[in-house]
Amino acid sequence: MAAPTRKTVEFFYDVVSPYTWFAFEVLCRYKNVWNIDLKLKPFFLGGIMNEASNRPPAMVPNKGKYLFQEIQLLAKYFNVPVVPPKDPAEVMFVKGSLPTQRFITAVDLLDSSKVEPVSRELWMRIWNRDEDIIDPDSLKQAGLKAGLTDEQIKTCLQRMKEQPIKDRLKQYTNEALEYGAFGSPTIIAHVGKPVMLFGSDRFPILAQLLNEKWDGPIPGSKL
Prior knowledge:
Blueprint: E1 7-13, H1 18-30, E2 36-42, H2 45-51, H3 61-78, H4 88-95, H5 98-110, H6 115-127, H7 136-145, H8 150-159, H9 163-179, E3 186-191, E4 193-198, H10 203-210
Parallel strand pairs: 1-2
Antiparallel strand pairs: 1-3, 3-4
Helix pairs in contact: 1-3, 1-6, 2-9, 5-6, 5-8, 5-9, 6-7, 7-8
């Protein structure tokens, strides 16, 4: 009997978002548990927010205060080591993530197997150790920790300035917008037709769409 066809799940993301880190780790844990083909697609959240006329939730004072309390609870639930930076507004809205997302895109086109560890290390820098993620040396250090060679990092730092990388990042951003994206993460489950889900708390619904079992944030765990 033929094995069931693997269902494609696209994960559009930007590492500037801590909620996206939760979803990223869950999908990486389940990619070999569920019968899925997980496609990591870095996009630019700033472009998504602008084109969708969306407003960052942290810009609403009471919601912003709540979010950073919630993040600590979610970090424990998802078992992801999120520690908010001292100045989240500067990190998210002043510095932003455009160079970072271009670097990840360059890594993707050079060696797609490194996108997962590079993205994770960048999240560790910004949302665990309160370190920079946009300066070239910061990107280099993240690349080294993720297993890239000096030559690969040099290539990515050069290519991230070039038009093909900018075009690829714009392509993924536009693809997400065409699906209806308004924030990060945007998850697209291809189940006969593409179904969009938003956020880090839709996994029971995603499992149902995929005809798979949701076993909590850590599959096989008794917690």
